[in-house]
Structures are given as structure tokens and as C-alpha cells.
């Protein structure tokens, strides 16, 4: 089988490519140049897609003994991931750029190009598993290493994309991957993992957004509309945020306050107690199913953040909308996030959260 191995320059993708080559596949390594400023070097575990990463990927390909190329997808990445990230924050939502990158770049642009070049599949270093079923379909499952599981950000993949994907590391824990890289003589064996948002190398998301969107001062208010403070832009906040609110007036009960709602139109950020943050249900749109769309009500688990815990829910699909009710009130559910549904370890699919219904509102 002809396999295109996406090589980021890190240890995971290098070992994934090595495993595919060792399994007897005809493997070609490709590094995706996603940065408009590739001259910048990563800072420790922050950032990626730099010249340094490209060179690390090339060295790994040489050790493995496979051809290697660099594909410039910087413009596609900027349009589909960076601009989407900025516009979502400007709209008061909280996007996940890694999920969007997997959907729009790695398993859309890259896979489409790979198939056009007569490759059979794309392999990546994601920690997730693909299970082949007797009827010929493929299922996406959680990785065996719960600390590294990345099935959440892959919940956007369709059945057709899964049929052309390989995740060779899904049955391995991270320590074993590094040990294997060392045995194979890969220089990236001890390279730090990338963290945070790859296109914000210094990790300062508010500063990045301020540079893109400018300042738009407004008020910070409580649920009753009382002004508590001021801010320089709603894009500096996310639902559930507790730190950095800079509210001069303490809460009557002395407890911390959290961001409940963000309204860019009137430049208002609403804060309240932890109890007011609790959500009973949500409505999501733009569903992406890893297999057939569910046709009945589901009693399943949901994950709301890349590293969040799963919670029990009842989900109902109504056309292009997904209604999700939580068995127990859930905190910090933000519009713009993805809700990914699971049946055991199997990923059913995902959708983008549009709105939430808070427990406090039901009792008002």
C-alpha cells in the first residue's frame, strides 16, 4: 500500500512513519509547512512548523530510509484555521484550532492531494485507534494511553476519511514511543512535545487576539446587569474563565466569579458564581459523523474539551442539529467548542456547540 506519512518533526510522527515502513508499505514522508513565518524557531515545547521542525522531519525520514518532501499549505492553514480562530473569538465563541486543522487541512487538503497522487492512505502520529469491522467499515476509538488520547480532535473525520487513515501509535503509550525512537536512532527521541496553539508560539492567546482584533473596551457585569469592571475586548475571555477578570468589586459571598457569557455586539462580559456556570443542556450544529448518522435517541458519553473528562448525556439528532442533555449539570460549556460523542471507546461523531441552557435559568 502506498502511504503518505505526515511528519511534523516530532517524535510521534517519526515513529508512526517508521512503523508504516517496517510493515512493508511504500511510504513517503511529507512535512506540512503551515507557518507564514517559517524562519521563527520553536521555544521549548511551544510552536511548530518551523524550519527546525522541517529539518528534524527530514533527518528522521533519512534514518527511516523513505523519500521526503515539504508541502506548503500555509495559505490554506491561515484561511481555514487561523482566520477561523480569530473570527470565532470575535464572535464571542471558543474554537478548537487543532480540531479545525484536522478537518480542513490534514484530512481534507492533504488527503485529497494524496489520493490524487495515487496514495492509498495518510498516516499520522495521532494517539487514536482505527478498528476494522466485519462489514468493511472502520471505527475510530480512543487510544490505549488515556493521557495522550487525541480522539477528541479527530471526531470530525468521516467514514470515507477513516478508510484512508492510519494511526500507528494508538496501541502504544508515550514512554514506549520515545524508547522506540531511541532504538531506531531517531534524533527526535527526546524532543519536547508541542503544547498550546501551534501558531501562537509564545502561548499568549489574548495578546495574539488583541493584535489581530484591536481593543474594543466594554463592561464586565453580573447576571443582574450591575457593572463590576471594564475590559479591553471580549476576545480576551472564554466561558468558564476565572483568572484575569480584574474585577475590583468582590462578590458578596467572597467566592470567585467566572465568565458566564460573552456578547461582542454590546461589548459585555457577564460573570457569576460557579453555580451559575452549570449547564443542563446544549444545542450543537454542523455535525460530523464517523459512521452513519444516529437515527434514534442515544444514551452515551460526551467530551467537551481536548483534555476534558467524559460525561454522561442523552443525545438526539434533529437534522443538522444535535440536542444534548447532561445527566448531571456540567460546568464551563462554551459556544464554539466541539461536543464529541462516544459509545464506550468508539467515537460516534462531533458537532459545534451553538448555545447552552443553564440550570440557573431553569429555576429563575
Automatic annotation (TrEMBL):
Q: Where in the cell is it found?
A: Cytoplasm
Keywords from UniProt, A to Z, are:
ATP-binding, Cytoplasm, Disulfide bond, Nucleotide-binding, RNA-binding, Transferase, tRNA processing, tRNA-binding
Top enzyme class, one word, equals: transferase
Domain named tRNA-specific 2-thiouridylase MnmA-like central: residues? 207-272
Query: Can you name a GO cellular component term?
Result: cytoplasm
GO biological-process terms attached to the record: tRNA wobble position uridine thiolation
Q: Does the keyword Transmembrane apply?
A: no
Q: SUPFAM superfamilies attached here?
A: Adenine nucleotide alpha hydrolases-like (SSF52402)
UniProt site (Interaction with tRNA):
126, 337
- Protein residues bound to ATP: 6-13, 32, 125
UniProt domain tRNA-specific 2-thiouridylase MnmA-like C-terminal: residue ranges: 281-353
Gene Ontology MF terms in the entry: ATP binding; tRNA binding; tRNA-uridine 2-sulfurtransferase activity
Please give the chief subcellular localization of this protein. Answer: cytoplasm
Source taxon at top rank: Bacteria
* Cysteine pairs bridged by disulfides in the record: 101-198
Q: Do you know which InterPro entries this protein is assigned to?
A: MnmA-like, MnmA-like_C, MnmA-like_central, MnmA-like_central_sf, Rossmann-like_a/b/a_fold
Q: Which residues of this protein are catalytic?
A: 101 (nucleophile), 198 (cysteine persulfide intermediate)
Q: Report the catalytic activity.
A: S-sulfanyl-L-cysteinyl-[protein] + uridine(34) in tRNA + AH2 + ATP = 2-thiouridine(34) in tRNA + L-cysteinyl-[protein] + A + AMP + diphosphate + H(+)
Mind telling me which Gene3D superfamilies this protein's record contains? Adenine nucleotide alpha hydrolases-like domains (2.30.30.280), HUPs (3.40.50.620), Translation factors (2.40.30.10)
Q: Which NCBIfam families match?
A: PRK00143.1, trmU
- Task performed by this protein: Catalyzes the 2-thiolation of uridine at the wobble position (U34) of tRNA, leading to the formation of s(2)U34.
User: Which family does the record assign?
Assistant: Belongs to the MnmA/TRMU family.
Q: Cross-referenced PANTHER family, in alphabetical order?
A: MITOCHONDRIAL TRNA-SPECIFIC 2-THIOURIDYLASE 1, TRNA 5-METHYLAMINOMETHYL-2-THIOURIDYLATE -METHYLTRANSFERASE
- What's this protein's name? tRNA-specific 2-thiouridylase MnmA
Species assigned in the record: Kribbella antiqua
What gene does this protein come from? mnmA
Amino acid at each position: 500500500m502506498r502511504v503518505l506519512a505526515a511528519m511534523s518533526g516530532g517524535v510521534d510522527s517519526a515513529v508512526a512513519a517508521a512503523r508504516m515502513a517496517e510493515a512493508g508499505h511504500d511510504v513517503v514522508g511529507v512535512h506540512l509547512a503551515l507557518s507564514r513565518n517559517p524562519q521563527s524557531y520553536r521555544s521549548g515545547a511551544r510552536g511548530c512548523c518551523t524550519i527546525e521542525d522541517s529539518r528534524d522531519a527530514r533527518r528522521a525520514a533519512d534514518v527511516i530510509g523513505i523519500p521526503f518532501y515539504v508541502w506548503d499549505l500555509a495559505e490554506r492553514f491561515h484561511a481555514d484555521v487561523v482566520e477561523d480562530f480569530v473570527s470565532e473569538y470575535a464572535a464571542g465563541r471558543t474554537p478548537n484550532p487543532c480540531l479545525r486543522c484536522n478537518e480542513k487541512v490534514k484530512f481534507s487538503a492533504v488527503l485529497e492531494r494524496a489520493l490524487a497522487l495515487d496514495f492509498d492512505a495518510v498516516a499520522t502520529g495521532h494517539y487514536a485507534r482505527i478498528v476494522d469491522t466485519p462489514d468493511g467499515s472502520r471505527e475510530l476509538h480512543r487510544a490505549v494511553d488515556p493521557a495522550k488520547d487525541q480522539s477528541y480532535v479527530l471526531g470530525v473525520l468521516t467514514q470515507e476519511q477513516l478508510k484512508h487513515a492510519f494511526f500507528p501509535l494508538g496501541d502504544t503509550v508515550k514512554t514506549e514511543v520515545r524508547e522506540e525512537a531511541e532504538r531506531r536512532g531517531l534524533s527526535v527521541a527526546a524532543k519536547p512535545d508541542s503544547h498550546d496553539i501551534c501558531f501562537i508560539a509564545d502561548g499568549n492567546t489574548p495578546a495574539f487576539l488583541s493584535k489581530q482584533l484591536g481593543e474594543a473596551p466594554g463592561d464586565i457585569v453580573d447576571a443582574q446587569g450591575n457593572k463590576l469592571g471594564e475590559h479591553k475586548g471580549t476576545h480576551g475571555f472564554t466561558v468558564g474563565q476565572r483568572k484575569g477578570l480584574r474585577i475590583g468589586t468582590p462578590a458578596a459571598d467572597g467566592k470567585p466569579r467566572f465568565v458566564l457569557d460573552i456578547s461582542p455586539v454590546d461589548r459585555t462580559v457577564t460573570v457569576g458564581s460557579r453555580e451559575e456556570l452549570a449547564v443542563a443542556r446544549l444545542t450543537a450544529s454542523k455535525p460530523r459523523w464517523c459512521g452513519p448518522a444516529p437515527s434514534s435517541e442515544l444514551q452515551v458519553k460526551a467530551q467537551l474539551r481536548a483534555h476534558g473528562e467524559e460525561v454522561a448525556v442523552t443525545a438526539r439528532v434533529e437534522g443538522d442539529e444535535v440536542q444534548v442533555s447532561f445527566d448531571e449539570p456540567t460546568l464551563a460549556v462554551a459556544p464554539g467548542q466541539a461536543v464529541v460523542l462516544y459509545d464506550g471507546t468508539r467515537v460516534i461523531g462531533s458537532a459545534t456547540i451553538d448555545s447552552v441552557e443553564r440550570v440557573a435559568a431553569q429555576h429563575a
